[in-house]
Design brief:
By secondary structure, this protein is an alpha/beta fold. The chain contains eleven helices and five strands; from the N terminus they run ααβαβαβαββαααααα. It has a five-stranded parallel β-sheet with strand order 2-1-3-4-5, with helices on both faces. Specifically catalyzes the cleavage of the D-lactyl ether substituent of MurNAc 6-phosphate, producing GlcNAc 6-phosphate and D-lactate. Pathway: Cell wall biogenesis; Amino-sugar metabolism; 1,6-anhydro-N-acetylmuramate degradation; Amino-sugar metabolism; N-acetylmuramate degradation.
């Protein structure tokens, strides 16, 4: 059965790139750069809705809920990428932010584009992770009409989870199932219908905002420092020492000593230094402050 997509902005031809196949490499790059400049402006127009979603995500985290991204193709991969970065960056569990893609893990590498057409699989994949009304489900689809994402959002809404849509077309069908709609309309792609380009960039920017602002909202950042970063390799161990130095003004040697005493917990090390307390007291202070370093340092 034919599906009408010609009315979608993301499927329309871009008149500015109609002869891109005749351009030199530098001309192509300049054209792409000019089009990409439009992405940040489109995202900016959605600031209010993004902030509304962040507030709901923070509320969900505080009651033990999760942030769940679900999408197909490029959209699904972007959700999984953002989810995968949260544990090392913010010290979250792998269950707190989850990414799901139509077609499963194999779809991360191999394009299984037909998987996006299965409405029932969206619901099935959410059931597999036992979503509840404590969770926030973000359905990601550049077109706004992907059946897999529609199925997921319909089920999420039915069980009482907060639903958020992220698409790049006005009047996207997924918006009808969302409590909060985020719609950065970036215009036609430089390659007609190739939503891995401007639409994908817009989605990545929004996902960065959703996860980062939400993590700041639950105490995962001190000043502008990744205070809960997990020092799981040599580079991250060195970064952690620098974070302690920047947060407290101590020397490299002192930061290293305190990090070891804090059992490689940078947040605890900072509180130990700034409050002049033991590791155990630092942990108590942090717990009483719900993870916020500023509050943990209050007398």
């Amino acid at each position: 059965m034919a599906v009408a997509i010609e009315h979608l902005t993301t499927e329309m031809p871009n008149n500015k790139t109609i002869d891109i196949d005749e351009k030199s490499p530098i001309e192509i790059i300049k054209l792409m750069n000019e089009e990409d400049k439009k992405v940040a402006l489109a995202v900016e127009k959605e600031s209010h809705n993004i902030a509304l979603a962040v507030a709901k995500i923070i509320e969900a985290f505080k009651i033990g809920g999760r942030l769940i991204y679900i999408g197909a193709g490029t959209s699904g991969r972007l959700g999984i990428l953002d989810a995968a970065e949260c544990p090392p960056t913010f010290g979250t569990s792998k269950e707190q932010v989850i990414g799901i893609i139509a077609g499963g893990d194999k779809a991360l590498i191999d394009a299984i584009e037909g998987a996006e057409d299965n409405f029932d699989e969206g619901e099935k994949d959410l059931k597999a992770i036992n979503i509840s009304n404590k969770d926030v489900v973000v359905g990601i689809a550049a077109s706004g009409r992907t059946p897999y994402v529609l199925g997921a959002l319909e089920y999420a809404k039915k069980i009482g989870a907060i639903t958020v849509s992220l698409c790049c077309n006005h009047n996207g069908k997924i918006n009808d199932l969302a409590d909060i709609s985020i719609t950065p309309v970036v215009g036609p792609e430089i390659l007609t219908g190739s939503t891995r380009l401007k639409a994908g960039t817009a989605q990545k920017m929004v996902l960065n905002m959703l996860s980062t602002a939400s993590m700041i909202g639950i105490g995962k950042v001190y000043k502008n420092l990744m205070i809960d970063v997990q020092p799981t390799n040599q580079k991250l161990i060195e970064r952690t020492k620098r974070i302690i130095m920047m947060a407290t003004g101590v020397t490299y040697e002192e930061a290293e000593k305190k990090l070891i005493k804090a059992q490689y917990n940078p947040k605890a090390a900072v509180v130990m230094i700034k409050a002049g307390c033991s590791y155990q007291e630092a942990l108590v202070r942090i717990d009483n402050a719900n993870g916020f370093v500023n509050k943990a340092l209050e007398k």
